[in-house]
Amino acid sequence: MVEQTTQQQLKDLLIAMLSDYSDRQVESNNREAIERLRRDKVDQPVISLTYTTASMIAGADLTYQAILDYLEEREIDASLRLSGSLGLGNSEPLMEVQLPGKTRVTFSRVEPEKVSDILDAVFNNFIPEEHVLGQHINELHEPWEHVPNISELPFFSIQKRLILQNSGMIDPESIAEYIVHGGYRNFLKAIRNYTPEEICDLIEESGLRGRGGEGYPTGRKWKNTLSSPAEQRYLVCNAGESDPGAFMERMIMESNPHSLIEAVAISAYAIGAEKAYIFIEGEYEVAVSRLKKAIAQAKEYGILGHDIYESGFNLNIQLHQGAGAYVCGEETALIASLEGKRGMPRPKPPYPSRKGFMGQPTVVNNVETLLNVPVIVDHGPGWYHQTGTEKSAGTKIFSLSGKIDRSGLVEIPMGMPLREVVYKIGGGIPDNKELKGILVGGPAGGILTYDHLDTRIDYEEIAELGGALGSGGLVVIDEETCILDTVKYYMHFLKQESCGKCIPCREGIRRMYEILDNITQKPGDEQGASTLQRFKGVINLEKLAHVIRDTSLCGLGRRAANPILSTIHWFRDEYEEHIFERKCRAGVCQELRTFYIDVDLCTGCTICAQKCPTGAIVGSAKHAHFIVQEKCIGCGICYESCKFGAIISK
Amino acid sequence: MQIDIEVNNQTLSARKGETILEALAGEGIQIPTLCRLEDFTPTGACRLCVVEVEGRDHLVPACSYPVEEWMKIRTHSPRVIEARKMIVELLLSNHPDDCLYCERNGHCELQRLAEELNIRERRLSGRKSRTNLDLSSPGIVYDPSKCVLCSRCVRICEENQQVSTLDFTGRGNTTAVSAAMGKDLNFSNCIQCGQCIMVCPTGALHDKSYLDAIQQAVNREDMTTVVHYAPSVAVSLAEELGMKPGKDMSGLINRALKKIGFDKVYDGTFASEIYVMEEAAELADRIDKGDALPVISSSCPAWVKEAEQKYPDLLPHLSTVKSPEQIAGSIIKRYCLESSDRGQNDIFSVAISPCPAKKFEAQRQEMTHQGISDIDAVMTTRELARLIKLYGVDMHAIEPAAADQPFNKDRSAARLTASLGGTNEAILRTLYYKITGKDLKNPRISKMRGARNTKYFSFQMENQDLNFAALSPLGDIRELMEDMRNEQVTHHYVEVMACKGGCINGGGQPFHHSSQTVRSRMKAIHNQEDKMDTRFIHHSPEVKRFYSDYLDHPNGEEARKLLHTRFSARDVLL
Amino acid sequence: MDSIAKILERYPFVERENLIPILQEIQQEQGYLTEEAVREVGRYLNLPASKIYSLATFYNRFRFHPLGSYHIRLCRGTSCQVHQSGKLEKKIIGELGIEDGQTTTDGLYSLEVVSCMGACGMGPVMAVNNRYYTGVTEDQVEEIIAYYRETEE
Ligand SMILES: Cc1cc2nc3c(=O)[nH]c(=O)nc-3n(C[C@H](O)[C@H](O)[C@H](O)COP(=O)(O)O)c2cc1C
Ligand code: SF4
Ligand code: FES
Ligand code: FES
Hints:
The complex is a heterotrimer of chains A (about 650), B (about 575) and C (about 150). Chain A is an alpha/beta fold. Helices cover about 40% and strands about 15% of the residues of chain A.
């Protein structure tokens, strides 16, 4: 009887399945057990709740408790599981219910109060439409009526999920679920059927390029390393994801940690490394704990360790938690950090492929880059290359956020126009606001405008516009966001995150920040030196930016000027407005805001005068008040406190 | 393998694998550098050495970028010059504008860069980093506001000295150099060797100066001012005054100090002779008794501090003899008190030394007599040059003079102690005489000369194999100390100098930019010695007279009271 | 001192690459790093204290002073920035008089500014200890801070 399969038997079965991955004999002999694991067939209701950082922040803990209570109170025999994320950022927590024979149906924004309503309904074979997101239609299960197919929802329909396929569909903490969905098969295929050189060839043919850096061809990088003679080689997976506007690697690692382990394992094999590191941002607590579990499980299943499945290949994967430094995303800094040093970049050459971790040849690859590897091993380079463009093969994952209707994890084929991502997938800008720009590539990327919506997303096109695909952050901004304020925010971030080693970056970024800060502040006294300096600063801003780009040691400094240069180019009018008219059209630069009191509307209630922190409002009770502009700091407290709408902002 | 590269449209030949900077050296093309430090791995931090290489998107640092066949390099294109200029301007925008008051005024690399790059306008300005002036230490002042974060001090302290007091802290635009836990230098493990000062391009690290106090004392009628200078000062001062490096300046120094107004000017060589006598006697005694061998020299106060904090368990091995400076200090005051009617408080004793750690040493409690320091103030070679300029003494015009009696000896084997291995050499001669009753036929011990960091020598005396070692800089002693802890050492005498090459390269010496300078100082010492009258200190009539007049015999009861000291463990954060 | 020794025991190999993990564990255990911890770890790994201090001050998450009883984490990721988290930061600084990385003198609050907490769709995001707040406004900041102050009283 399948129900009685003990843990041990299950494990044996799965291991047998892996050993036999090509014949699939074991699989067909144990069809029922496997179908159950795959949830092709369930004999009791299965409820699963998205349990990721995002859903936790949205209150998944409470929802989980509510579901437990519900089931207990009503003595319902159902199984409650956890799952990863489908990638829909603002619909968490998601709860999925699968009744025997029926499709899996997902509800969004399931706050604890909603649990009983939804479950009551479902158990009565009724789907409350106001809460439902959709169902996963397939040929095995009977679909619900009037419930949309999830893959046809606008957020998902034009995505192409090669890597995110299982994200949100399986329990991230269960290696069994991963295996029955085809997991680790590609790893075994690689170590059994291919030599490391052959894998490198496959990857090179596939046209895969690095997703974390400048798009360097991964196959070529691997070959350089494989051909460097050494006692030991290392693979380092760069899961630092230090861009403050990106969360996709975190979501992937939380949702499908085993897929990363498999990807790392194949890649380590390909470059002849017996030790691999995953350098992960330490703040990613959930991801860390899931990866730890995944590594432990993989060891238990003989996927990591000594002489893996009698292939003669040994592999040990170690997790290293970063202690918080953006620059540690840079590969030489990352290696220094792994070695227990300050994460400061060093000059290249020598490149890590010759001299990396502990002086040995080392490959540093981005999480997403590596996740493509199993896909390529599975389907072959030719198949892979069909997706994407000639020079940029495959898909690209973005974390879409900012002023956008649907934010979340997005995987699209390379070459898709930005417009489709923003409007079709993201659903455009909320509240009928206008799109002002798209921040591409994080703090050291560029800001694209409305005019670039038809740009095809690939390495070359984005780079040409001053952006960088390097990080997967796509942050959409609307008319309420000030460009200068945004650039200033980036400069603030970068001046703190610069490692402090080289002069142009360390001293230059802070000066660029200050110049912007000056522009966005109220002029001190117009005759004084500060005005002169402000103008000198503005005049020299571009020159400074070019020198920083030209001379900095690492990519942080080199790219730090991107936001400035790209915005001076595309948003020149907004700069000029700030500088010459002393005006911020988005109303964000507080100090540049001016307020007036409409004498006709003012009742002389004195509230504003009482609240003004600088005493800039004068007037006596029951008489119209007046704002002394010299004293006003533009904080807007009066504007918010006036009950009569008498204060006008300009 | 030689390859061809193209530099500024000219073909040059370069060695494959060398850096662009190395390839250009000697080709008549100068490239500015700031973070580069001779003999250290380039860090590529300052970016001043950037050049344009055809086909590269960015400028590349010449100090770390290897040449490749047919590389086309432009070293002074407009793009390059603008970049270098802007980098220096960036540094200046975070630099206090007080060059005219700065210790390094006229000797500052940042000033020189600004000058060379023709910076004439303040294009960038902004908020400056907030910093605290650290005046805590007796020998070294640290003013972080002038730090340009070139990391030269950090590297010298870590790699040469292995003391690692200084390191970067923080990140980004608030990066700074500081001691562990942000402690002030005096509360850190700093040994005040001053090597950081030697490599600092600006005035961020500089001498703690006691010149004011010294001038005041000189001005006072009722104060007898006495000054003596170390042998190593005599061979390095010339550089600081624009004279031929290696020139022996003793005579001129005597004259100059007199002109400045010191009542008594003594040559420290005499104290070094006494030092050698004491050390040889103690060594002979300990070899005889087999007591706490090897004896480790303790004439270097920086090393003594390191021993007290890092190797407290090995302190019994340290020779108890005071350093030559402090020997001079104790006998000068004693002698002056006896030869005049002055009291302790009326004598101001100044030492001129190649080393900021001597300032620290002079303030040690062990170096006082009835609560008053034996040495009242110390100045470095650099400060001596400043004093000479201040008093308008033209060293080119004056005639040499002899130092005052009785400490006027300058030609003696004791001068060897200025360079690493020299203490060994001088002591060995005396020790040999003590043990065998004969003088060495060939007193020149070439194994103890030369530029190596570690020198070893074995010698047979009366059927005893005696082993000698000389080690510097401090970074090179660790192994031996560990061996001692494991009792695997067969040496009888170990000479340790904190600074590479010994006092001739001390942290208070004139700034130099290549090891060549240090070699010329060493050569000066050795050349002198080979022509010297007193090659065997134990035969020196002055030394003999000194002992018979005052102290009976070396390492005797009286001598131990006056010329020996003690050490104790120090608890600092290492 | 026991706890540090226990942590060190888990790293039988004296390798510098263990430095960051060791410091992380110590901080986890003690809340922050002390001079004593620096000394112990230095002795164990044969590293000068200055190297350890230098490393620890390089990374955002090492601290040399304890956190407040209520540790506020404010997301300053790009998406939250676009949703005006800058104003919230100013508000908190105004309310508490502390900046990123500092603790109030009464030990009640500490502030840490973090980049993207992973819930961009719900920004601006802020957390106090383990409790999260989404879509936070300036007024709410005031309320939240007041709430904890009252709880304490
Ligand atoms: C300042 C800076 C930050 C970076 N951050 C990351 C990062 O967070 N994740 C990443 O994968 N690569 C990052 N990179 C790029 C890496 O240096 C490196 O190029 C990349 O990990 C190589 O992997 P790939 O070839 O798979 O893209 C960063 C680079 C720089 C200069
Ligand atoms: S560019 Fe910035 S981050 Fe990179 S090495 Fe220079 S200072 Fe460090
Ligand atoms: S000298 Fe080359 S980077 Fe400083
Ligand atoms: S930016 Fe705040 S959660 Fe992502």
